[in-house]
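My current task is to audit a protein record that another person submitted. Please read both lines and tell me whether the tokens look consistent with the sequence. Do not assume that whoever made the record got everything right. I have pasted the whole thing underneath without changing anything:

===
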Amino acid sequence: MKLLMLGSGTSTGVPRIGNDWGECDPHEPRNRRTRVSIIIENQAGQRILIDTSTDLRAQLLANGIGKVDAVFWTHDHADHCHGIDDLRVMRYDRSNPLPGYASRKTCDNLRRRFDYIFEGQHGYPTLMSLKDIADARLVAGFSFDHVEMPHGPVTSTGFRLEADGKSIVYATDFSEVTPSMLKCFDRADILVVDCLRRRPHPTHAHLDMALDLARRAKVGRTVLTHMDKSMDYRSLCDEVPDHVTVGYDGLTMTA
């Protein structure tokens, strides 16, 4: 399997509006971070898009992506779903709506916020279908498992996708490592993991928590994502173990 990191930044991106780079070197291209989304592709070329970030159009254009086969959402926070309208063009050459999956609560919130996407309006067709992730186990050539993760006062869905004898986990926006997470992520080939900053945060994983999850889940490789302006790429590369990759927009990796 192949992963493509479309975006690796926190909700405000790096730099923040106002050209605020924080501790990130503005001359290092890998410090320029858009909001998080990721694509996972199997050997047959089928693609799962996880989250529709607010920067989705620019991300898809930058990486030459014209179609995906299904969309998963981790949760309904704006930086993870407000780029949904950019999927409209993927409906044009389809005979049926593009399939989407999320937790029941996230499905309810997405339907309420983006009713025109899932119901069609004013003569426009339904762009996407939306199903509870609990009702599926095989999508677009991938088998998968999922787990609800604490994200401060709410939850975010972590996904484990498997194809071609390999496994990739996507675990972003969590604030605690639970036994259910360790069970779901156990011995994955690649873990893409929330890593907002070095200091603890009430709703996100910090560096030590991200590395602790990777160690306890016994994963093969770890990729850090959802990083803020305090996480300079080169400084962080010098700090993390060899089996940990500091993620960046456009990163590709094969499991």
